Amino acid sequence: MPTALITGASSGLGEQFAYALARRRYRLVLTARRGDRLNAVAETAGKLGAEATETIPLDLARRAAAHEIFTRTQAARLHIDYLVNNAGFGTHGSFEKLPLERELEEIDLNVAALVAMARLFLPAMVERRAGTIINVASVAAFQAVPYMATYAATKAFVLNFTEALAGELAGSGVKVSALCPGPVRTEFQAIAGQLSDRMPAFVYLDAETVVAQGIAAAESGRSVHIAGVVNFIAAQSNRFFPRALVSAIARRIYRPPAA
Q1: Tens of pLDDT, residues 120-153
Q2: Residues 4 and 81: beta-carbon distance below 8 Å
Q3: How many CA atoms lie less than 13 Å away from 21 in the CB half-sphere?
Q4: What separation, in Å, do the N-terminal and C-terminal C-alpha atoms of the chain show?
Q5: pLDDT value of position 198
Q6: Residue 60 and residue 87 in contact, taking contact as beta carbons nearer than 8 Å
Q7: Coil, helix or strand for 27?
Q8: β-strands 27-32, 80-85: how paired?
Q9: pLDDT value at position 127?
Q10: Which of 37, 36, 9 is nearest to 22 (CA)?
């Protein structure tokens, strides 16, 4: 049976990826920090059609965590056919005031863990000449975002890294795609310390819609998918307007009240 591994699967996009792939009868390996939430997602996924589920509660921001996941799947003789690198978080505020350790943790999770997971599970996909990797980036990957400087920079890395991998793997049978959502109503805003009213309501997409678009884009072989028409237009802004102007607009949107 095909097996999908999803990081950050305890809520938001990761949770919806679990449900969507469960409906496609995948065996699921779910990982995130919160074991109780993972178990709840696994139970629901089983009811939706997942052939089997396994949960691995751990913190992927730890450099050894990706290797631990790989070792566990190898020991269980699980061949990962579908990898969703979704785990990540954002911070919000004046960079000079944000805790350094939290910024470094953000880089470790959003960038280092994603690279490690791809590097560990990709060789077997290439050998089998089949597989899918979806890396969750963001519409923020297309521009600098004042007051979310580290987050936007990590997502720019994810976007460029994914496009490069897709180019390397052309004709290999392995599909690699970057999913770039804009605002989605998940726990992300609370973790980042953002106010939910910074964007008009029509900009927000629900997580289920974003996931469905991401899966369809990967199936069609698209290396990048920007979810939502408004987000697509916003992502193209750097092509039509000076970067300084785009950055100034983002600065007004994301500037904390106390800044």
Answers
A1: 999 999 999 999 999 999 999 998 899 999 999 9
A2: yes
A3: 32
A4: 53
A5: 56
A6: yes
A7: strand
A8: unpaired
A9: 98
A10: 9
Q: Catalytic positions, please?
A: 151
pLDDT at 241: 55
Rounded CA-CA distance 210/184 in Å is 8
Range 3-254: architecture per CATH = 3-Layer(aba) Sandwich (3.40)
The pTM assigned to this predicted structure is 0.88
Residues of the chain with pLDDT under 50: 191-192, 195-196
Structure tokens at 62: 């730890």
> Would you state the pLDDT for residue 191?
46
Q: Which of 35, 36, 42, 37 is nearest to 4 (CA)?
A: 42
What's the confidence (pLDDT) of residue 182? 83
**Residue 174 contacts residue 131 (beta carbons within 8 Å):** yes
Residue type, 213: Q
- DSSP code per residue over 39-60: HHHHHHHHHHT-S-EEEEE--T
Break the chain into its structural domains and give their ranges: 3-254
The rounded distance, in Å, linking the Cα atoms of 224 and 233 is 14
Distances in Å between the alpha carbon of 218 and those of 28, 119, 121, 135, 153?
18, 19, 17, 10, 23
